[in-house]
């Protein structure tokens, strides 16, 4: 044992002087180190050999990953050197396998890289040869045992390899015995004790010899066994086998009880000396003796245990046939069992490194995981093929023998697949093949790659005027398929507005002064009551912005149409042209009446009032149907709410006058008589068609006079209204021609407007009683249809204009014209010049 310790110290000292050679070939670093090297012994400058700068090894986390066995080396964090961390015993690590290599994987971060390091542990002569036992008893019959008789001996074993395990044997000097060493196939040695001279029990009954085994190390180590030879009398013929060596091939998956071989021996003796039995010699290792069993009578050798090619590939059995003579004699033969490999080991898959989650914008070729694959079988049974399921978006790339990288082959989309269950399958080349698999869960992390998208590009919203401030008009919603902050959407009014009115307060107002959008819910609310007469259409954009980095946004256009309510009563107008009121022509006003410019009047000339008084003249004897006066009124609402009708409230019953239902013309119902009195007071009500209807009243005082006075009054009033007097036939003829030309153009205008109205009805087809505030799916406002006892027409919710047409005689009528429904262009609306009706009729 002192020699063994000195050998270990000498080898450890040699390590310091002779560093293990390394080679970087195909991404693999090789080192060698002798076994029993002390802890801290430098195996190699790993960081320097990998091309790393000083300090880079620790910064990039240079580390080792052992494959399937305990690693006795480690990486020094500061220097990046590969050093011995614990006792290296080659025999414990690899047994008799040569070469003995530790296969390690070296990982580097930022970026992730893998290197393969192979550390070969070289053998030193630290184990002496050992015999199975310290004593060996041999019985030899005297005289009958002839010189040259051979007695098999069990050789020594040395767990070292190479020259350190090459044994040589010597026998202590003896005149009767010699040692014969034979080398057979597979470099196996057989020892025989050879009798060189006949024995004489009476001279010497016991012979004691020492058999020494020496290995080839420097210095050599030895082991001994003492041979105790007893000289016996009797039987002089030993059983003889018909073969000295039996060779058998047996698959490793052979079942228990399988017949391995049948040996046969004969003994020329007679009687009890001819009877013999078979047995397995004690020279066979106990592990193999327990695997086989022999029938002592028939010589059949059968399996009693299981074979494993990966543990023992060749078994050598010493078979003995011993007779029953006295002394018993024995014959020997050898049975060599070659174990054949079968595919009984499935591949094994290990995950060395896993980098998850993977961002969905990861570049193609990104390494997701590192895997190691191995199979304990040999030949085709140990060749492994790997595949990944599903085949996309990941793939396998072979980096080294038994090492693979799981890489990204296709672009990821977390909104489509947020997590992958990846299965790596390994299959060997056996028949049938064996398979193994390893499952990996690969989550995909989100990036902000989706902008919010509204359900509609254009939202059309109807809202009643005079709504309450803060009332909800609609709810907008934009979808963002991203998650967390990348999918959290906030809303705001981006741009847009409308022009307001045409008076001194007109101008452009932004949409944010009318409406607001809740940033979280997308609810569209009114900031103030809406007035149809101020604003008919409001077009603006709503923006949805996510909370990603950088943020993405989407827009939608909102068209807000204000639906008219009957919130304006009819307003009476003064005579056309802004001329004087009837009493401004020098006539006396009716007692109690006030001119428009006086205190307490409803307005000045050219403005509308809700109640006023007027007087007119009519000649006695005037025929029925003669127009005495015309009441003019206007309603700021539109459609039905602005459609006016005129009713005569007083006097009730059958009076001398009547009023046109829709024209407002006051005419005689019959011929006027003196019995009707000098003056008639008429109370006329102007009422719209809204719900509920609103009205205004006008008081008309008609004085009954002679025909000449009535004519003079008519000329005065007509001049005040801006109409040409009908004093002469020539003037009447000119007025009649102008009226005829006007009628022609009116007919053309009526036809054109009617065509537009019919087209609007076909395209939009919305009824008056449709919901006043609703979100419609699609751009464009609704078109309402109005009907009454005098017919029906289409009108827009946007704008309306009143056109009163003047004709001579009783054929007078009013025409209401509505502009087409076209949304205004974004930006401030141009100011419109107020348009007066074409003509207003008076007396």
UniProtKB/TrEMBL annotation:
It is a single-pass type I membrane protein. PROSITE patterns: CADHERIN_1, CADHERIN_2. Residues 1-27 form the signal peptide. Pfam families: Cadherin, Cadherin_2. GO terms for molecular function: calcium ion binding; cell adhesion molecule binding. Keywords: Calcium, Cell adhesion, Cell membrane, Glycoprotein, Membrane, Repeat, Signal, Transmembrane, Transmembrane helix. Residues 583-603, 820-843 are annotated as: Disordered. It is found in: Cell membrane. Its main location: membrane. Residues 32-131, 156-241, 242-349, 350-454, 455-572, 622-727 form the Cadherin domain. This is Cadherin domain-containing protein. It comes from Gallus gallus.
